[in-house]
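Renewal narrative, Specific Aim 1. Our central claim is that a sequence can be written position by position from structural information alone. The example that follows is taken directly from our test logs and has not been curated for this report. It begins with the structure tokens describing the chain, in the order in which they were read.
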């Protein structure tokens, strides 16, 4: 953090109660926009998760290994999602969000359909990479739009509606994929397309779920774009090169050298060497080169993007990665997400392997639990954060702590019981707890920054969490299980993160105490934000 400038606290509170460009009333078309964005979130997760339901058929048809399936499901998507997500989040603050998201939705829908005609592991991987690139437009654009369509008093509920689509989409993806694999040969004859029965069920599933996104993209592109300050004007090609060079290697070296000079370039190269050495050591230790190469590329992209962000937009940097509240909240919610995602990933294999639950039953009951409870939890969390913030602006952080502490006894019970029915009920309850904090984190980030920064801030927060938690947590629990021989013990070991998570959230709440829009606006202006 820059120590050469200090930010004076404002001596008066004559600033507006909302940030410039914000609204105190719901904008026209807000509910219709929220409905369309909800559908976008549903399709986003349908297209993302359907591969899990059809993985065995893909493996059998193409002769893939489990490692290759894991790469398709996780690394190829999450690392590229983060790699391109950082600049796309920035673009959502500089370009019309409706058009950006419509373009991304069209692209990822086409890439999902491309998976249905893929002929090799490489082409399947390409489709997943394209899926990650396209889906990177969804969250920052949607969060920014929703936060401008809806006033502060109802923003948490609106974001919760959007986030509910993720749980519904995840459940639908598993259901549609499983149903198509099992029943396509019986229904293909009724499809009025020549040669329908000549393609396999998993390919038909990919083609089916990809098609609606192209239609929805047209509707999204026609949404009203709320006015914002500081929209970019200039050549689109130059803008794309500028933003993607901030995080996509090796363009990062060119961007940092060009904008930050030799000192910034040397620091970046030092980070590159450090990460390369760390990932090389971890590869030698674990033998899993693809995991650590992918993870290292993602971390290097994150470091490079933050470096360029500080050079290009000091006000934005000092309200995000340069702000102790943002950094501490990011660390706390990342560890909380790591706990939730790791448990969510390994719970089904545990039920099948340890409790000897039939795979069909485990997938059906646990999939329904996630779809229902995640939606209910997200909505409940949205209402809760809106109500609690009336009394305490630190409410999003307190809700994170409630989730962390509330889940603990249920996690212990899940992985110590031998009763299948009890396991399923406890899984349902902990899933409900786990989804309470999504809207809280989204609301907190939106209110820590200025209106023009919201897309970038949402992307920075969400993508950092995704990169670290999804690419690290489930993998590490798998390695612990291999070494210890106990999957249940490995899963419960993730709660070793709980004390550090709790500390970060408490410290973030302490730092947030007494802050206001006026103070954050003054801080931004002290680092160069225009006054008009």
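The sequence written for that structure reads:
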């Amino acid at each position: 953090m820059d120590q050469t400038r200090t930010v004076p606290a404002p001596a008066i509170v004559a600033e507006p109660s909302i940030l410039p460009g914000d609204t105190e009333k719901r904008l026209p078309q807000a509910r219709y926009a929220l409905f369309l964005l909800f559908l976008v979130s549903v399709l986003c997760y349908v297209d993302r998760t359907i591969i899990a339901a059809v993985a065995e058929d893909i493996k059998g048809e193409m002769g893939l290994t489990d490692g290759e399936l894991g790469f398709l499901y996780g690394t190829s998507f999450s690392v590229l999602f983060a790699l391109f997500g950082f600049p796309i989040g920035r673009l959502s603050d500089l370009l019309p969000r409706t058009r950006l998201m419509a373009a991304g939705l069209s692209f990822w829908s086409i890439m999902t359909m491309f998976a249905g005609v893929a002929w090799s592991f490489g082409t399947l991987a390409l489709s997943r990479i394209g899926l990650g690139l396209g889906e990177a437009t969804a969250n920052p654009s949607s969060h920014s739009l929703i936060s401008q369509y809806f006033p502060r008093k109802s923003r948490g509920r609106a974001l919760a509606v959007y986030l509910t689509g993720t749980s519904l989409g995840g459940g639908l993806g598993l259901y549609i994929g499983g149903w198509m694999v099992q029943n396509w040969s019986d229904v293909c004859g009724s499809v009025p397309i020549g040669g329908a029965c000549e393609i396999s069920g998993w390919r038909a599933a990919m083609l089916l779920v990809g098609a609606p996104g192209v239609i929805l993209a047209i509707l999204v592109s026609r949404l009203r774009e709320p006015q914002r300050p500081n929209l970019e004007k200039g050549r689109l090609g130059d803008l794309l090169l500028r933003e993607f060079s901030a995080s996509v290697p090796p363009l990062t070296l060119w961007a940092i050298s060009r904008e930050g000079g030799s000192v910034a370039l040397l620091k970046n190269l030092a980070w590159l060497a450090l990460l390369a050495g760390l990932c090389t050591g971890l590869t030698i230790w674990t033998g899993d080169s693809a995991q650590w190469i992918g993870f290292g590329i993602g971390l290097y992209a994150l470091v490079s993007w933050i470096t360029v962000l500080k050079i290009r937009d000091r006000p934005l940097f000092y309200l995000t990665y340069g702000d102790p509240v943002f950094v501490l909240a990011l660390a706390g919610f990342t560890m909380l997400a790591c706990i939730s995602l790791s448990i969510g990933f390994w719970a089904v294999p545990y039920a099948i392997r340890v409790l000897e639950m039939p795979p069909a039953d485990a997938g059906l009951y646990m999939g329904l639990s996630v779809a229902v409870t995640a939606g209910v939890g997200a909505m409940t969390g949205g209402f809760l954060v809106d109500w609690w913030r009336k009394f305490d602006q630190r409410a999003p952080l307190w809700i994170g702590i409630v989730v962390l502490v509330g889940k603990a006894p249920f996690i212990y019970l899940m992985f110590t019981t031998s009763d299948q029915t009890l396991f399923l009920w406890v899984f349902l309850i902990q899933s409900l707890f786990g989804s309470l904090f999504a809207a809280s984190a989204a609301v907190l980030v939106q209110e820590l920054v200025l209106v023009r920064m919201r897309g970038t801030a949402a992307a920075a927060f969400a993508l950092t969490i995704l990169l670290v938690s999804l690419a690290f947590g489930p993998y590490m629990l798998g390695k612990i299980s291999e070494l210890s021989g106990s999957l249940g013990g490995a899963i419960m070991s993730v709660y070793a993160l709980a004390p550090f998570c709790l500390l970060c959230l408490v410290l973030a709440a302490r730092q947030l105490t007494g802050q206001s829009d006026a103070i954050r606006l003054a801080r931004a202006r002290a680092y160069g934000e225009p006054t008009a």
